[in-house]
Amino acid sequence: MDFDVELIEKLRQASKVVVVTGSGISAESGIPTFRGEDGLWKKYRAEELATPQAFFANPELVWEWYDWRRQLIGKAGPNPGHQIIASMEDYYDDFLLITQNVDGLHGKAGSHNMVEIHGNIWKVKCTEENTEKFLDENPIGQLPPKCECGALLRPAVVWFGESLPVDGLVRADKAIKECDILITVGTSGYVYPVASFPMIAQASRALVIEINLEKTPISQIADYTLLGKSGDVLPALWHKVIQK
Ligand code: BV8
Q1: Strands (DSSP E) along the chain, which ranges?
Q2: Dist. CA 243–CA 167, nearest whole Å
Q3: How far is the CA of 16 from the centre of ligand 1 (A)?
Q4: For residue 244, what pLDDT is reported?
Q5: pLDDT tops 80 at residue 41
Q6: How far does the centroid of ligand 1 lie from the alpha carbon of residue 148, in Å?
Q7: pLDDT band at 48 (very low <50, low <70, confident <90, very high)
Q8: Is residue 199 within 8 Å of 218, Cβ to Cβ?
Q9: Would you state the pLDDT for residue 168?
Q10: Higher pLDDT residue, 181 or 33?
């Protein structure tokens, strides 16, 4: 796989780098994306199930979807794309990973400087007390699960129509405005406000690199669009960057 020499040099020279990932980076770990042909779950779309309205109207159905995903994710492991991003953290003076994914695979691959900006499927939140806790990777059994206080537990993820965590947004906003390079990996650039991050970074003088199987709205503003599987492109690209 060949890359533009200037791109490799810029990646070598950068000091502040932000990576934004979407469900495409977990596809090679066997986890369906949201909008791919395998992304549909039974006859539902994420936008129909990942909402507070859907949950309170039918908590059992929404928990069935999340439990199905948890069981799938529980069997999956990080792929080379996740691993390369984890290794980028040590190379740059200032590195932040912003992931839209709730699967926890970046953490399993060793990423630490990370914002899980849409939450984490292994965490649950009490719908009364708003307290969060990890629910280990075993099947939940009783659906929907209940808190000790008797209230419903919900997945601690950000649903459509819900605001993103303020601390995560503040951290992400600072990083995208200060970075030299922003790399998006495996996101369709469809879900806001994360879809606006590449534009904001570019408006603050950053170079924008997109890695995706296909062109997306981000391709229209990206300085480089590298087409291919992230599990192939990231290792090939990173090998060139760290090669002496
Ligand atoms: C909010 C967690 C305030 C749950 C998810 C403008 C501004 C602000 C908000 C909006 C706006 N316009 C519309 C909105 C509302 C809404 C929105 O964006 N709607 C969409 C449908 C248009 N946004 C919100 O509600 C957000 N909240 O802004 O609060 C507010 C509220 C209301 C109104 C105004 C303001 C909250 C959004 C968060 C929703 N939660 N997930 C869960 O996971 O169950 S979103 C969900 O989609 C996942 O997080 C997923 O990651 C994310 C984005 O999708 P992608 O990751 O990009 O996945 P997708 O399938 O689309 O694409 C995969 C890509 O990978 C493809 O391009 C494919 O080609 C590529 N690919 C596949 N395989 C590979 C690959 N690439 C490389 N290698 C491969 N092997």
Answers
A1: 16-21, 94-99, 114-116, 119-126, 132-134, 153-157, 181-185, 207-212, 224-227
A2: 36
A3: 25
A4: 77
A5: no
A6: 32
A7: confident
A8: no
A9: 98
A10: 181
* Nearest atom in ligand 1 to 229's CA: 78
Ligand 1 closest atom vs CA 46:
44
Q: How far is CA 72 from CA 34, 75, 141, in A?
A: 14, 5, 15
Per DSSP bridges, beta strands 16-21 and 94-99 are: parallel
Q: What is the pLDDT of residue 37?
A: 67
- In sequence order, what are the beta bridge partners of 95? 17
What is the percentage of the chain residues whose pLDDT exceeds 90?
Answer: 87
Length of the chain: 244
Set out the domains of the chain in order of their start, with CATH numbers. 5-30+78-118+164-242 (3.40.50.1220), 37-75+125-157 (3.30.1600.10)
Among 4, 6, 8, CA closest to 239: 8
